[in-house]
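BUG: 3D viewer hangs when loading the predicted structure for this chain

Environment: internal workstation, default settings.
Expected: structure renders.
Actual: progress bar stalls at 90%.

Input used:
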Amino acid sequence: MDKKEILLNKIKEIRNEKKKNQIKNQNSIKNTKPLIIKELNANIKLKKNNILLYEKDEKEMSRLKLFLIKNNYNVFPSLNRTHFFDFLKNNKIDLIILTYLINDNQVKELIKKIKINPKFQKIPIIILTNSSNKDDVYFFFNYKVHSYLLKPIQFPKLLQKVKELFDKQKKTIPEN
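Structure tokens produced before the viewer hung:
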């Protein structure tokens, strides 16, 4: 998927969410145009607090995405590895959230690829998992995963971890 397709998909998502909000709030169509134009003008040049979210379950993806968006984060969902890496390579990502199921070698491979690539290795990673297996925990520790949260997800705890990681980034990276 190229940048143009990603941007068009993002615009479609924004439009769909705005339509839902319009029905709820009975707002006029005028309120959606500035957001769509802003996204087009951005041309995928993303703002700060960009989260790349990898979750294989669409329902869980929607819950996580909605929660993070409501807390003022830019969330870019990915349901497969190819899209995940294409998006990561072509965009500025500040945080990665991965869902890991027991013996999920695909996620372990994602982590390895991220951590061996100098361009991505400093991006913090949060793991959401149902595994407390000590081999998994050791793997995450060995690959310097920043946070490890057990499922079911406690949203306040997730929000706290996300805020901590972004606050830490602000202290270590000077603003432009």
